Amino acid sequence: MNKFTDEVRHRWGETAAYAEYAEKTKACSAAESDALAAGLDRIMGAFAACMQSGASPDSSCALTLVGELQGYITAHYYTCTDEILAGLGQMYALDERFRQNIDRHGEGTAQFICDAIGDFCETR
């Protein structure tokens, strides 16, 4: 995460979401930050398991996980609106760094999450 700090600050540093993120995480120790990252990684792994079970991105399994992801981000980082969530989904699939990291759980997981987020946001 630290290697992306400057990029994140440059892209989103003037937003309310970034200010909320900075406030929520300012007192986090390295161990706490690692635990939060592990929580996100667990959700990504659950998406992979859902996909590998043959579920589609609009399945109840996938949509439930999108809600869990949105709730996790909101609880621990910043208020993850549907608009922000949709942008994250696109970033997961289109940004090579995110896609490679997420696809560690299984090839195509990042695109599956992106598609599930799209379906989730369209139905709300």
Give me a quick take on this structure.
The protein is mostly helical and about 120 residues long. The chain has helices spanning about 5-10, 15-25, 30-50, 60-75, 80-95, 95-100, 110-120.
Q: Low-confidence parts lasting 5 or more residues at pLDDT below 50? A: none
What is the highest CATH level, the class? Mainly Alpha
| Proportion of residues in helical segments | over 70%
| Mean of pLDDT | 91
**What is the number of strand segments?**
0
Number of domains: 1
What's the multimeric state?
single chain
Q: What is the ordering of alpha helices and beta strands?
A: HHHHHHH
What would you call the structural class? mainly alpha
How would you characterize this protein structure?
The structure is a single chain. The protein has 124 residues and is mainly alpha-helical. The protein has a single domain (2-122), classed as Globin-like. Helix content is 74%, strand content 0%. α3 (30-52) packs antiparallel against α4 (60-76). The chain is globular and about 40 Å long. It starts with a helix and ends with a helix. The mean pLDDT is 91.
List the helices and strands and how they pair.
Blueprint: H1 5-12, H2 16-25, H3 30-52, H4 60-76, H5 82-94, H6 96-102, H7 109-122
Spell out the key features of this protein.
single chain; mainly alpha; Globin-like; 124 residues; 7 helices
